[in-house]
Amino acid sequence: MIRLQAGPIDVPALVDATRGDGDGALSLFLGTARNVNAGRRVLFLEYEAYGRMAEREMERIAGEAVDKFAVTRVSIVHRTGRVTIGEASIAIAVASPHRAAAMAACTYVIDTVKTTVPIWKREHFEDGAVWVE
Q1: Is the pLDDT confidence value at 133 over 90?
Q2: What structural domains and CATH numbers belong to the chain?
Q3: Measured at the alpha carbon of residue 31, what is the angle toward residues 24 and 36, in degrees to the nearest 5?
């Protein structure tokens, strides 16, 4: 499961799509919108993406993680549009026979997504908004 979507992320469905009977571990990362950043009160986040290019890049990252860490499956779902405080903007699930590989691959995936996928975040504060690098 690799996709961009405008609505809330269904975490149980993500887990079900990722985990198989041969997997003894499932590492899950949820990136959630927090209410304070750099000492300023955040009202909500807004994400924009370069659609199909972003999904292709997430597919590439998932494939690299499978090859590099010998995990079974990787799922990535990233939100677009408005994300309210407390909601997940990204969910990553990695299944593997063993926990160390699943956890290492999960870290690799989020770090790589944040640096290579064409998705942009705008934080909305009480006194304005700013695009985040």
Answers
A1: no
A2: 2-125 (3.90.1170.40)
A3: 145
